[in-house]
Specification:
Helices cover about 75% and strands about 0% of the residues. With about 300 residues, the chain is an all-alpha fold.
């Protein structure tokens, strides 16, 4: 008997026990889901979204607008990551590196994760609606990009760039959220983030080189080999730095923003120095820790430059 049947039958004690057990299970599953999608890694794209918002406003946007931009960012990324785990559950189960993820390990049900995706999408659409009409109209486009990425490894070796676009639209979306219109200059920052994310995803995919070949999945390392993949990632990151310099020129930013790019370049050099095609042991440090620092550092310097000019 479920909770409602027990309540109707007058067995309040049993009903309360059933309810408490179900709620405990729900919160446990929610916690496992948040851990599975690494929601704290929203820091990758969020600072770039905030950079777009600051550039659009010429300073700090209102707290209301800033709050809904953060809601949209976290909700979109949560939906994308959870959907990715659903789409890749069978592939994860046969990959030694990912076999212990929550869905293949049986810690979470596909039904629960599917519900989490639906709630995250609804929260994203709500946030878009609260910003302005254009953000709401473009919400389906943004969702298509962030969700369909999950199937790109089945289609193209350049799926890394689709992931880059999924994160790269953040500053452009934030600009639209602030202004309700689009300025082509902010698309340069989208391009920079696309190359940045694409580059480190190429490096991250090196860990699955053997598995991808056996499973028939596409990636740059699988297509070209580990050594060429590292050079492609380096080229992408060099392209990112050049686009960031172009962004500074387009928006008339100054020495503080340029100093931020120098710091980003140093961090990228360090990231590439601690891993190699023959030694991927420090990949998590390069992928998670350093990339989070890079995005925060860039936002901090650009925001400081903009605010100092007001």
């Amino acid at each position: 008997m479920d909770f409602l049947h027990l309540r109707r039958a007058g067995d309040v004690g049993a009903a309360q026990f059933f309810y408490d057990r179900e709620m405990a299970s729900f919160w446990k599953s929610t916690a496992v889901t948040l851990e599975m999608i690494k929601w704290e890694h929203s820091v990758f794209a969020l600072p770039f979204a905030l950079t777009g918002a600051v550039l659009a406003a010429g300073g700090w946007p209102t707290l209301r607008v800033l709050g809904w931009i953060v809601v949209c960012m976290v909700a979109a990324r949560s939906a994308a990551m959870a959907f990715n785990r659903l789409a890749d559950a069978r592939l994860d189960a046969v990959n030694p590196r990912t076999a212990m993820r929550a869905i293949p390990a049986g810690t979470l049900s596909s039904r629960f994760v599917g519900g989490f995706v639906v709630v995250s999408v609804a929260l994203f659409v709500l946030g878009a609606a609260m910003l302005n009409r254009l953000t709401l109209e473009l919400a389906p486009v943004a969702l298509a990009v962030v969700l369909l990425y999950s199937y790109m490894k089945r289609v193209t070796r350049w799926s890394h760039l689709v992931l880059g676009l999924a994160l790269g639209i953040a500053p452009t979306a934030a600009w639209i959220g602030v202004r309700g219109s689009l300025d082509w200059r902010i698309v340069v920052l989208t391009g920079a983030v696309l190359l940045w994310v694409g580059g480190f995803d190429v490096l991250y995919a090196c860990q699955d080189f053997e598995h991808d070949r056996k499973a028939g999945l596409n990636s740059v390392p699988q297509a070209f080999g580990l050594v060429p993949a590292f050079w492609i990632a380096r080229a992408m990151h060099l392209g990112m730095l050049l686009m960031l310099c172009w962004l500074v020129v387009l928006f008339g930013l100054g020495k503080v923003a340029m100093l931020g790019i120098v710091v980003v370049a140093i961090l990228l050099l360090y990231e590439h120095s601690i891993i190699s095609p023959k030694d991927l042991r420090r990949m998590n440090a390069a992928f998670f820790t350093l990339n989070g620092v890079i995005s925060v550092v860039f936002f901090g310097f650009v925001a400081a430059d903009v605010l100092m000019r007001r």
